[in-house]
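Protocol step 4 of 5: obtain the predicted structure for the target chain.
Materials: sequence only (see below). No template structures provided, no constraints applied. The aim of this step is simply to have a reference model before the mutagenesis design in step 5. Sequence pasted as it appears in the construct record:
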Amino acid sequence: MIFGFNSAVQHGGTVYHVQSEPRERERLLETQVFVGGRCMGTRATSYDEVFSHPGSIEDQLHDLLRSQHRLVVEAARQGRLDDVLGGAGPQPELSVQLLNAGSVFVDDAVVMRFRVTAGGQAVPGASLTCRLRVLEAEPIYSQAITDAAGKAEMRVALRETALQDADILVEAIHAGRSAVRKFRLRKSG
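Step 4 output (structure tokens):
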């Protein structure tokens, strides 16, 4: 009987769960990488590679699975999972957060601070487009690119009274992925 392997690896604030096991029905040795319960990618090796070598098939399969598991664990530690998973697995979804803890109104302007992440990691270079809708006026559009920490700031000159029931729609785009979030703003006080 071939036993599997499980490891938790942390890199850059993200914990990767690496799970390797034999898939006897498919005749594969499979290693999957999970972040937050979601599969980020898979590496698989066919049993057929082993059958051409002399010796115990079960021992060879176990050794091959162990080697494959170690390869993926080391890649996760070094932040190079794409190299060993071939980018075949689904990419983590983008997430947009509004970072303003209090009022968005500062010095006669609406100042909105955002952070874009994917799989818990900051996404630098993401394009943000914001549509600010205030009262019955035409929407105001603003754009920014996230910095190395995945953060961006947008400033729109506006009177605070215009924030009565305003909302913002933000779209983040990066590497063919996108996320849209809507936030409701209210006048303070």
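Step 4 remarks: The first strand starts at residue 5 and ends at 11. The chain is about 15% helix and 50% strand.
Proceed to step 5.
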